[in-house]
Amino acid sequence: MTTIAADPKRMGAKVGLTSALHTWGSALTHYPHIHMIVPGGGLSPYGIKWVACKPGFFLHVRVLARLFRCLFIDGLLALRQAGELSFFGDHEGLVDTATFTKWLAPFRKSEWVVYAKPPFGGPAAVLAYLSRYTHRVAISNHRFKSADADTVAFRWKDYRVKRGDWTCPVFVPPQVLV
Asked: SS3 of 92, please?
């Protein structure tokens, strides 16, 4: 975000931001994504004046998506080279360099999604948004339906079906209950 915003062809400004990384979606599936709040502009390169973004337009989402993809893949490669990645189960074969490189290739071509919303309606709206995304756990108390020695059942949403919440029993291994 800061790299693209600082580019004189884009905005040419130093922007601030607040972000929260999520690794799950509301259906409790693996869904890594980031919620980010940025001001509608930033400071000029020497901090002398405010540089506003174009009305209704912050930064080009396709440019951001491609940079995010590149940085993420480069980060994965660096972690792998430093021996910081571990592979388990179906992914154990990725320990081999050639296999890892082949596995990673399609991700270089896939389109990432950056969704940008219009500005909030003031500080109170920003605070309300942030609190929804930074002070929530995956399975909050209101989702729990029942629990016994063998299972825990909780409600979750299946957006493919428009009927509302579902109850999902989950086996809990005994060592977890100790």
From this structure: helix
3-state secondary structure 39-74: CCEEECCCCCCEEECECCECCCHHHHHHHHHHHHHH
**Mean pLDDT over the full length of the chain:** 80
Instruction: Please enumerate in sequence order all residues whose Cβ is within 8 A of that of 40, keeping only pairs 6 or more positions apart, or say none.
Output: 52, 53, 58, 119
In Å, the largest CA–CA distance within the chain is 64
pLDDT for position 164: 52
Q: What pLDDT, on a 0 to 100 scale, did the predictor assign at position 36?
A: 83
- Contacts of residue 114, defined as CB under 8 A and 6 or more positions apart, other chains included, come to 61, 62, 64, 65, 68
Helices 61-81 and 97-109 cross at an angle (nearest 10°) of: 170
The domains of the chain are located at 1-59+116-138, 61-113, 141-178
User: CB under 8 Å to 119, separation ≥6 — which residues?
Assistant: 40
Tokens representing 49 are 């004046």
Six-digit token string for 121: 């309606």
Q: Which of 20, 102, 11, 27 is nearest to 64 (CA)?
A: 11
